[in-house]
């Protein structure tokens, strides 16, 4: 017998289940608004209960803490970012072109959804320590799926011969470096540190240049001297992210900020 997942049909939900789902959604909507307006330290479970019109006892029955709610919000944001990452990595090109698509997916998500990105960056270690184990596991699984997309592009580079690892652990090294570059750079960009404190203009393009120089250093072909990756970036935007790119840069502006 086919399950609902296998058949492609949505599972049947009873009126009670629909009510509970809507209650959770109402709680999360209220919490999202509060945390974006007041910040993590400015909200309490009392605030969330009042804003969502949910009895405090019921709220604690579903979420053990405000951190638990924040992790649930982060999971939703990360699921949507990961879906965009899958699209970027699916670009039909060589392995480094697929990495361009993957990088652009995260850049577009960050720039078009700054509130979601803020929530993701709020969900750090101290916050996670106070969330329920079940919700932490769910978040970790989504994060694992996102990293697996990156690993898939790197493994494809090795299989195609575009990247020849010089020693064991190189793929782990590149994966960690790329992930750290993206998360760290975008967190800094959100805070305004590159432009306001460091005096660095155009931080997205600086991050792009640093990645390409790093990829060249690992001898990941085609090298920047052999390939026009800005053209690839424009093609990725047009072929994969037309709606998002035009929303951010304007109709037909496939070269974005570099046009």
Structure description:
- It is a single chain.
- The protein is mostly helical.
- The chain is 72% helix and 0% strand.
- It contains 14 helices and no strands.
- The chain has helices at residues 4-7, 15-38, 45-52, 56-62, 66-89, 95-112, 114-122, 125-128, 133-160, 170-191, 193-197, 203-217, 229-239, 242-249.
- Helix 5 packs parallel to helix 9, helix 6 (95-112) runs antiparallel to helix 9 (133-160) and helix 9 crosses helix 10 (170-191).
- The longest helix has 28 residues, at 133-160.
- The chain is elongated, with a radius of gyration of 21 Å.
- The model is unreliable at 1-7 (pLDDT under 50).
Number of helices: 14
Low-confidence segments: 1-7
Q: Describe the main β-sheet briefly.
A: none
The separation of the N and C termini measures 55 Å
Mean pLDDT: 90
Q: Count every beta strand, where a strand is a DSSP E run of 2 or more residues.
A: 0
Break the fold down into its secondary structure elements and pairings.
Layout: H1 4-7, H2 15-38, H3 45-52, H4 56-62, H5 66-89, H6 95-112, H7 114-122, H8 125-128, H9 133-160, H10 170-191, H11 193-197, H12 203-217, H13 229-239, H14 242-249
Helix pairs in contact: 2-3, 2-5, 5-6, 5-7, 5-9, 6-9, 6-13, 9-10, 10-12, 13-14
């Amino acid at each position: 017998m086919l399950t609902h997942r296998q058949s492609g049909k949505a599972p049947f939900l009873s009126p009670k289940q629909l009510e509970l789902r809507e209650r959770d959604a109402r709680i999360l909507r209220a919490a999202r608004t509060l945390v974006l307006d007041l910040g993590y330290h400015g909200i309490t479970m009392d605030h969330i209960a009042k804003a969502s019109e949910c009895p405090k006892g019921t709220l604690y029955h579903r979420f053990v803490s405000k951190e638990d709610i924040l992790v649930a919000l982060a999971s939703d944001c990360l699921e949507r970012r990961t879906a965009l990452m899958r699209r970027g990595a699916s670009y039909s090109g060589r392995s480094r072109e697929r990495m361009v698509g993957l990088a652009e997916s995260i850049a577009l998500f960050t720039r078009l959804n700054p509130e979601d990105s803020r929530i993701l960056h709020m969900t750090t270690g101290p916050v996670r320590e106070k969330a329920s184990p079940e919700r932490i596991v769910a978040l970790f699984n989504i994060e694992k799926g996102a990293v697996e997309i990156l690993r898939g592009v790197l493994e494809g580079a090795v299989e195609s011969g575009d990247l020849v690892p010089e020693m064991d652990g190189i793929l782990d090294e590149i994966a960690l470096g790329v992930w750290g570059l993206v998360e760290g750079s975008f967190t800094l960009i959100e805070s305004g540190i590159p432009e306001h404190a460091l005096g660095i203009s155009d931080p997205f393009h600086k991050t792009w240049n640093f990645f390409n120089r790093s990829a060249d250093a690992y001898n990941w072909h085609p090298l920047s001297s052999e390939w026009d990756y800005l053209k690839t970036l424009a093609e990725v935007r047009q072929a994969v992210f037309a709606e998002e790119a035009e929303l951010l840069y304007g109709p037909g502006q496939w070269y974005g900020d570099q046009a």
